[in-house]
Amino acid sequence: MRLVFAGTPEPAAAALERLIASDHEVVAVLTRPDARRGRGRTLHPSPVKALAVEHGIAVLTPESLTRDDAIRHQLEELAPDAIPVVAYGNLIPADMLDIPAHGWVNLHFSLLPKWRGAAPVQAAIAAGDAVTGATTFRINEGLDTGDILDTLETEVGEAETSGELLERLAYAGADLLVKTMNALDAGTAEPTPQPEEGTYAHKIAPADARVDWNQPAAVIDRGIRAHTPAPGAWTMRGENRFKLGPVTPTGEGSLAPGEAALGKNEVLVGTADGDVRLGTIQPPGKKMMNAADWARGLAADAKEGVVFE
């Protein structure tokens, strides 16, 4: 089939790479415009654009599909049979959904209808889901509510972060997307309507990643892993903000919520029902480091009465 691929970040590039290697023809990609990042605020292409350029594939970078009249004509001229979508980051207008014969097919990193929305991987970890997965479905006018084409399941590791889980799902999902394209091409795909009811994973703001030490240890553990690596879990000590890596619940302890005990080889912090052992910590203006190394480096008077809020 002739495909126009729509996607932007690294997980989407994994899917594009598999589609390029498949029997289908990727005639163009839709991706977000180059973005400024880094200290120099220089423009950088999205991972999808960089991969497309490497393979000599045409790149379309409209700011918006709803406000760019030219993009509809470009897509019509490309005449794609399907438009696979992975984390594109742009709203697809209803009047564009019928351009490809087989529709816009989204690869979503959850088992729909569970965790519709922007952050399904983070939501699955934060909720303590034992199993999650990926779904391919036809995009309609709703939010991740279109007919399901195929799914895959995977267990969530006990200590897995959202970054690690997303990487696994990106590659497994890439194979699922190719499988779905093959089924559409062969006419063997069996679309299944979704139930109307589902759960939603809202877009994560930095404030959502603040650790609430009054929560149980297991909830804190899941919340930190859900926000690792982005936007990064954090806590306050006085007026200073500290970024935290994953923690380990100890299953015991008597520290008050947020109260820290700085040992020679470990740093423990109290929660609502027991202590957690900090793994890594990033003090203001410094790099992420082992929490015990950070504690040993503090002046003697700075080790007294350490409390995180």
From TrEMBL:
GO-annotated molecular function: methionyl-tRNA formyltransferase activity
Domain (Formyl transferase C-terminal) ranges: 203-298
Top-level class of the enzyme under EC nomenclature: transferase
Record keywords, A-Z: Protein biosynthesis, Transferase
Database matches in Pfam families: Formyl_trans_C, Formyl_trans_N
Formyl transferase N-terminal domain mapped to chain residues: 1-180
CDD domains found in the cross-reference section: FMT_core_Met-tRNA-FMT_N (cd08646), Met_tRNA_FMT_C (cd08704)
Catalysed transformations (reactions): L-methionyl-tRNA(fMet) + (6R)-10-formyltetrahydrofolate = N-formyl-L-methionyl-tRNA(fMet) + (6S)-5,6,7,8-tetrahydrofolate + H(+)
Keyword Protein biosynthesis attributed: yes
The EC number(s) this enzyme carries: 2.1.2.9
Binding of (6S)-5,6,7,8-tetrahydrofolate, residues: S110, L111, L112, P113
Keyword set includes Protein biosynthesis: yes
Gene Ontology terms: cellular component: cytosol
Known function: Attaches a formyl group to the free amino group of methionyl-tRNA(fMet). The formyl group appears to play a dual role in the initiator identity of N-formylmethionyl-tRNA by promoting its recognition by IF2 and preventing the misappropriation of this tRNA by the elongation apparatus.
Family label: Belongs to the Fmt family.
Protein name: Methionyl-tRNA formyltransferase
Source organism: Corynebacterium afermentans
Encoding gene per record: fmt
